[in-house]
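Lay summary. Proteins are chains of building blocks that fold into shapes, and those shapes determine what they do. In this project we predict the shape from the chain. Here is one chain we studied, written as its sequence of building blocks.
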Amino acid sequence: QGPFGASGAARRTLGSAPVMLSILRRACFASLFVLVAVASVAHAQPQPQASPGQPQAAPGQPQAQARLEPGPAQPTTQPTTPAPQPAPQTQVQLMRSPDPYDPYESGFNWRHGNVSLDALVGIGGTAKLQNTPLALDITLGVVARYEHPINPYIVLGLNFGVAEWVPSASHARGAGRSTLFDFSFLPKLRYPFSDRFEIYLAAPVGFCADLADNSLVGGTNSFAGGYTAQAFAGLHMGLFPSTGLVLDGGYSMHWFSTHVQAFKTGTKYVVDAALAQPTFIIGFYVRN
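And here is the predicted shape, written in a compact code that computers can read:
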């Protein structure tokens, strides 16, 4: 071997050099790949952002990890809108039409009394004289009334009437009419539909007196007294604000006794009489 010749060991060492270079080259590539991967992962992680008032760390210095500590709750400021104010309440009174069938709502002033003057007509009926029934002729008369209300439905009053009556057979023989006077208490139950219209039931009860015609009883007679009871259904119908029409229909009964003295003999006797007759009244009232 010369001075520039290589021994066998040296040749083995030089022969393995390319292999070592290849391994070294691969190790470098692997290290470079690992560094690139680590850099990519670090870049993908979010970095804590510093608040506007905090200083940022200098490049190359590790950034301190920020600790989030709960602070005092800050009141959230909402845009203030004025609360809706309730609309002013106004007293609204609902008005409805008055009920024409209610006396209180139809403007009816029930406290007004009235005075009436009426004509009376009796048709048919019988007169019993000494228990002898005789048919009555038409009875004609007048009636004056005063009525005063106690409440809208009850009325109390007074009734005064004068009527002339005669049996039909006696009248045919020329007998005159007898005069009958009534003075009675007048209770009335009414229903006012309005200020100008009402219906009612009336029941006059009281006393009567009779002045009989002498030719009827066959002698002179004294003033006879008795009692009366009547029943009527009727209505008041206003024609003007304070004046109206009275219409009644019903039945009248009278009982009385007449003391008679005969013309020729002077004998005194008593004639009992009972009159019962359908009666109708028409007239006018004036409200006071």
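What the prediction tells us: Confidence is low (pLDDT under 50) at residues 1-6.
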